[in-house]
UniProtKB/TrEMBL annotation:
Matches recorded under Gene3D superfamilies: Flavin prenyltransferase-like
InterPro entries, A to Z: Flavin_trans-like, Flavoprotein, UbiX-like
Domain Flavoprotein: 3-165
SUPFAM superfamilies with a match to the protein in the record: Homo-oligomeric flavin-containing Cys decarboxylases, HFCD
Annotated keywords: Flavoprotein, FMN, Lyase, Prenyltransferase, Signal, Transferase
The organism's taxonomic lineage, starting at the top: Bacteria, Pseudomonadati, Thermodesulfobacteriota, Desulfovibrionia, Desulfovibrionales
Residues making up the signal peptide according to the UniProt record: 1-17
Protein name: 3-octaprenyl-4-hydroxybenzoate carboxy-lyase
Lineage: superkingdom: Bacteria
UniProt-recorded Gene Ontology molecular function terms: lyase activity; prenyltransferase activity
Length: 187
């Protein structure tokens, strides 16, 4: 059983977060945990006219973003499991917090713990253009073992809809997490 924690921060891209969580929920060998930050809830309302339940309904366990005593805040919670963490979408504020070791919420703290424990951390960024500060933070995290994965769908699969692009990107995320899926990789 794989333990995957999905952190959702306040960047644009909530339809991708929902698509990824739906995909994880359909995997019988994956236990999905979810943390939705307060800023993510505001973006969800703006982009999808929905609340956090649009995402959390697909998770096996849900944690309050302000609960720094929750299981994922501790290194021992992660042990004994084939575990990984994903932040989708990953805001530049969350990226900066992770790069500097500042933990203001459970998404930040869990990401910090995952890095110190040497586990897989995938950060799906969406911001564009990127400043020198953003790029420096990405480099710091990449050198620390995180995977920086911009939400930039490929067009070689000739997507016909937004859903096609979301599914293709979800498949690439699942690949980075080492998860088996049947989403199309190539023509």
């Amino acid at each position: 059983m794989r333990k995957i924690l999905v952190g959702v921060s306040g960047a644009s891209g909530m339809p991708l977060a929902a698509c990824v969580l739906r995909g994880l929920a359909a995997m019988p060998d994956v236990q999905t945990h979810c943390v939705v930050s307060r800023s993510a809830v505001a973006v969800l309302k703006a982009e999808c006219c929905a609340g956090a339940e649009m995402l959390t309904t697909y998770a096996d366990s849900v944690y309050d973003a302000d609960d720094l005593a929750a299981g994922p805040a501790s290194g021992s919670w992660w042990h004994g499991e084939n575990a990984a963490m994903l932040v989708v979408p990953c805001s530049m504020a969350t990226l900066g917090a992770l790069a500097s070791g500042v933990t203001r919420n459970l998404v930040h703290r869990a990401g910090d713990v995952v890095m110190k424990e040497g586990l897989r951390l995938v950060l799906v960024t969406r911001e564009s253009p990127l400043s020198a500060v953003h790029l420096r933070n990405m480099l710091v995290l990449c050198r620390g073992g995180a995977v920086i994965m911009p939400f930039s769908p490929g067009f070689y699969l000739r997507p016909q809809s937004l859903e096609d692009m979301l599914l293709q990107t979800s498949g690439r995320i699942f690949d980075q997490l080492g998860l088996t899926h049947n989403l199309t990789r190539w023509l």
